[in-house]
Structures are given as C-alpha cells and as structure tokens.
Recover the amino acids of this structure.
C-alpha cells in the first residue's frame, strides 16, 4: 500500500469552475503537506505548503488539511485553461530530512 | 524558473551503458535531492545530499550512485542501464537539511534503447 493515494484523473472542468483535488495518507507521522503543479515535460513547481490542520489560502488556491482523517485537498477557484496541468500532493515528516512522499498526480484539464 | 539547472535535457543511450546526470542547485542551497519519475511509479525519491554528505536514501538501485561536490553541484550516475530505467530524472534543492520547500529543476529525460 502506498503511503499517499491520489486519483490520477483526468479531471475535466469548464473554465471558471472550481477544481477540487484530494489525497489521503496512511501514516499520522506525516506532519507537513504540499501541493505541486507540473506542466507536461517540466519540473514540479511548488504551489502550497502547510503544517497544520485547517485552510490556507493563496490567491485562487486553497489548501485544506484534515489530520484526523488523514485527508488533504486543494481547491482552485475561477479555473483557467492555464491551470491545465498535473497536480501532485506531497507529504513529509520532520525527522526524515526532507524525504517527501508524492501522490501519483491528478491530471486536470480546464476547457475554454 | 526555479533556479535549479540540470544537464543534459535529453539523453538516449543503450542498455548496459553508463550515464551521468548533472544538477546545479539554487544559489545558496545546500541540500540536493534526486527523484525518478516514470509513468508507472510516479515521482520517487532516490537520494539526498546536504553540503557534500549523503543524508537520506530512498528507492535507489545499487546500480545508481550520486555525489555532491564542494561547489555543491551534484551528479547522479546510472550504470548497467536497463530499459526500465527510462524515465525523467529530477533534481531539487533546498536551503537547509530537511527544509521542506524543495525547488525542482527541469529534469533530464533518459531513454534507454
């Protein structure tokens, strides 16, 4: 069983819709949570990171963490065609020297 | 642009061969991480170096090795290559050992024929 599970999609939404992405993890020892965006044939780009349960907002992006359920989410408001990419969740433990566990990535397609 | 550079961008080689991938971290970053991304395995952590010393190992094969040099650039050596080693190899860097925010380079696409 993988330590972090993520639906690979693809997830297709119309422009302007809210994109909802999520991951589940199995080990409560994970303490920090990130979302990366990866365009085709490019390196992952950090979008959001958080340490605590609750919501964190940055522009059109909101990251949500529920440690009790071991569930993390990313919401993208007012989605644009330029948001079409693969979104990867990543989780880590403070005592593991930055060794991140990545989800499989969800491919998102925003159609004009 | 993350500030992390990787060379070469593309590499085509044959089974049994050896290749070296190079990574230059962001200015000031002491930690370098190597990842492999394939279609069936996703993004897998391979190894981390901090200021020249190995700090963490992940799913790295014995045929693979890495090092970080005094100028902080890093090289990943892949030997006795197999078809299944074809993948994207990413380098990431961060400014501290265990610092969570990792910045990724553009990757090296390796094709083993």
């Amino acid at each position: 069983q993988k330590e972090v599970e993520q639906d690979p999609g693809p997830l297709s939404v119309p422009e302007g819709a809210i994109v909802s992405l999520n991951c589940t993890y199995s080990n409560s020892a994970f303490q920090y949570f990130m979302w990366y965006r990866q365009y085709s044939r490019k390196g992952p780009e950090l979008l959001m990171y958080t340490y605590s349960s609750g919501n964190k907002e940055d522009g059109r992006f909101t990251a949500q963490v529920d440690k009790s359920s071991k569930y993390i989410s990313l919401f993208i408001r007012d989605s644009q065609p330029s948001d079409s990419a693969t979104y990867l969740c990543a989780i880590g433990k403070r005592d593991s020297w930055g060794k991140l566990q990545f989800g499989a990535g969800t491919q998102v397609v925003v159609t004009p | 642009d993350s500030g992390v550079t990787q060379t070469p961008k593309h590499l085509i080689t044959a089974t049994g061969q050896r290749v070296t991938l190079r990574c230059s971290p962001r200015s000031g970053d002491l930690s370098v991480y190597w990842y492999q991304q394939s279609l069936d395995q996703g993004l897998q952590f391979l190894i981390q170096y901090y200021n020249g010393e190995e700090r963490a190992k992940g799913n790295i094969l014995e045929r693979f090795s890495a090092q970080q040099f005094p100028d902080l650039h890093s090289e990943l050596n892949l030997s006795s290559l197999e078809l299944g080693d074809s993948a994207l190899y990413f380098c990431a860097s961060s400014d501290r050992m265990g610092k969570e925010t990792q910045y990724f380079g553009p990757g090296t696409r390796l094709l083993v024929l």
User: Anything to note?
Assistant: Chain B has a mean pLDDT of 92. Chain B is about 0% helix and 55% strand. The CA atoms of residues 92 and 103 of chain B lie 5 Å apart. The longest strand of chain B covers residues 42-50.
